[in-house]
Write a structure and sequence with these properties.
By secondary structure, the protein is mainly alpha-helical. It is 72% helix and 0% strand. The protein contains 5 helices and no strands. The radius of gyration is 32 Å and the shape is elongated. The relative contact order is 0.08.
Length: 170
């Protein structure tokens, strides 16, 4: 018998700090709409009761699904969070599988960038040795070349680590 793969528990959706106000405003608008719908339904029921149509309305199915009673804002935020989580899980299911061998391309590219960086550092060191005592222009150029080589080596290390992390996320 094959066992069902276990689905890891997903974290509760938290909006980014710069969008938190918009999410809170959206929740307030939804709560206001729900309150307005409840009030209009109460007014319609009261009017229908006055006209004797109350019995007929109880027999017919409601046009909108009933909304759960809201005791406080935490209940609605949990419900909205659960809705958002299910939508995110559905979107993740729709995504195609990530290319499994792309991380190898990332490591190859990082090795190439590292080799270029090492060459720049070597050329910068050689240029610094040849231009010593001949003026500031050669010295500054050699230092810039060595600095750029070091930056290339740092970029290669970052690319390699990101590629290895991508491999581990599959």
């Amino acid at each position: 018998m094959a066992q069902e793969p276990s689905v890891p528990e997903s974290k509760r959706f938290e909006p980014p700090p710069w969008e938190r106000e918009q999410f809170e405003e959206l929740e307030r608008k939804l709560a206001q709409r729900a309150r307005a719908a409840e009030q209009s339904a109460e007014v319609e029921v009261a009017d229908a009761g006055e006209r004797g149509e109350d019995a007929r309305r109880r027999e017919s199915p409601p046009s909108e699904p009933p909304t759960p009673e809201k005791e406080d804002g935490a209940t609605t935020s949990r419900a909205r969070g659960a809705e958002i989580e299910t939508m995110l899980m559905a979107l993740k299911a729709e995504e195609g599988p990530a290319a499994g061998e792309v991380w190898k391309l990332g490591l190859t590219a990082s090795a190439f960038v590292c080799a270029v960086g090492v060459m720049l550092v070597i050329w910068g060191t050689v240029a610094l040795a040849r231009t010593q005592g001949r003026g500031a222009t050669g010295t500054i150029g050699a230092m810039i070349m060595s600095l750029m080589g070091g930056l290339f080596i740092g970029l290669a290390a970052w690319m390699g680590l990101r590629s290895l992390k991508q491999r581990g996320e599959r």
